[in-house]
Amino acid sequence: MKGPSGRLDGPFRYVRAFGRRFDGMKWRVLQLSVLLLAVTFSSLGGNISAQPPSEHRAVPTPANQSHGSHREQDGGKWEGSAQGVAYSEFNHRLAGLIVLLFGFAELGHALRCQVPVWTRLVLPCALGALGTYLLIWSDHEAWPIGALTFAQTFSGQDLEILQHKFYGVFSSVAAVSEALRRSNWARHPGWAIPLFLLGFFGALLLFVHSHGNHPADHIIELHHAFLGTVGIGAAVSSAMMAWASGISERTMKRWEVAWATCVVVIGLQLLVYFE
Fold first, then answer.
1. I need a labelling partner for 101 at 20 to 30 A (CA). Which of 8, 21, 234, 261 fits?
2. What is the number of structural domains in the chain?
3. Is 4 inside a domain boundary?
4. 6 in any annotated domain
5. Mean pLDDT, residues 150-162
6. Mean pLDDT, to the nearest integer, of 86-90?
7. Stretch 1-9: mean pLDDT, rounded?
8. Rounded CA gap, 220 and 224, in Å?
9. Residue by residue, what is the 3-state secondary structure of 15-62?
10. Does residue 5 lie in a domain region?
11. Which of 156, 47, 147, 144 is nearest to 91 (CA)?
12. Tens-place pLDDT, residues 170-184
């Protein structure tokens, strides 16, 4: 209520002041997002220029060579080498940039910031780009850029390669399902399953994901354990957003913030990934 002077008295004045501070916090989040993306682009640019051209070349092997012998002759030298480390770190950091991009878009919606409607499609577009990249360039020796054939790549003889391709396939499937959901072409709750599977089973696979005979294997395992833990949190949050019924708008907002925060943390962790 207003007093004789026309000002808000009592708790109403503090509520109004809190609202102003919350609006200011939204703008700070957006400004921080732009700053982080700018720094990330600069970091990736330096990483790309520092990579030797030979990193992306497939090592020629006989057509009838088995997958196991290929890994022994080429993979043993590639894993832990300067070129192998640079290639792996670039892939992880590029993935981090993509994840961070749609993570900030999701965070903007979760905080009810005034963002354009089209930003709801940032997630499916980013997942589609990530899935395509992983299917093609996840491993230098794998199909379609390496010496291994399609059958050798997806046969399961090399679990590291197979898991990378799994992430590529499920990212692409989740991109399609989320694009349909967010454009209101598919409203059934079942369309949220691909995103949940990508987050949950993708996170579980990180706990058993191995880079073979790598000298920094213990550091890689720590990275994967952290990413897997946060990934499970993201999967649970996405499931609650899609399938929880009868919850209040305030509770739903908390799950949305939890989901977006987990995604941003995953993106940041991938950006600082090293071997």
1. 21
2. 1
3. no
4. no
5. 92
6. 95
7. 48
8. 6
9. HHHHHHHHHHHHHHHHHHHHHHHHHHHHHHHHHHHHCCHHHHCCCCCC
10. no
11. 47
12. 999 999 999 999 999
